[in-house]
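Quick bug: DUF4416 domain-containing protein output formatted oddly.
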Amino acid sequence: MATETLGKPILAITYREGDLLERFLERLPLERMSEPFFFESIQSYYSREMGENLLKVFVSLKGLIRKDDLKVYKLWSVRWEKHLSVNGRRRLNIDPGYVDRHQLVLASSKARGGRIFLGEGVFAEIEYLYVHGAFRPLFWTYADYRDKKVKEFFHTVRKDYLRELKFAQDGYYLITDFSSEELLHEKVHAL
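Here's what came back:
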């Protein structure tokens, strides 16, 4: 497997209940987590379903994912959103994606311009391109991803990815598999 087919798995999680977030994150092989952010830009869209005073954290997971598993990763997150819902209302909004040397890509279930259909109601969208030593937002990049601290967080995640990629080039890396109904399965592969 060529290393260019691998990405660093990330999640952007919008929440109101800190204890629920903590219980969800305990199940994951976390590598990094940002500070909680309050973004005015997400309040009106999500508060109707999830309540007021929503926060958002960004996390990266240990290991790598196959980029072509982005659709499976999104479907995994949708299952967890439904599992944790009460009366059909989400309590966590879980947006998966990956970072690689060139970009940050998110998966979404909403169609709009600039998104590529992956199948089964899942779309991919580039939020940043890595140009001239930094992540650069695009025309459609969400306001929260334009925040300086958020970009710094993902710059650090990119460094983690590049370090992990060196191990992959030596023939060993950890793949995080989201295809099972089980939460996560980790498998060690050799190139």
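Actually, after a second look the formatting is fine. Residues 3-186 form one domain. Closing.
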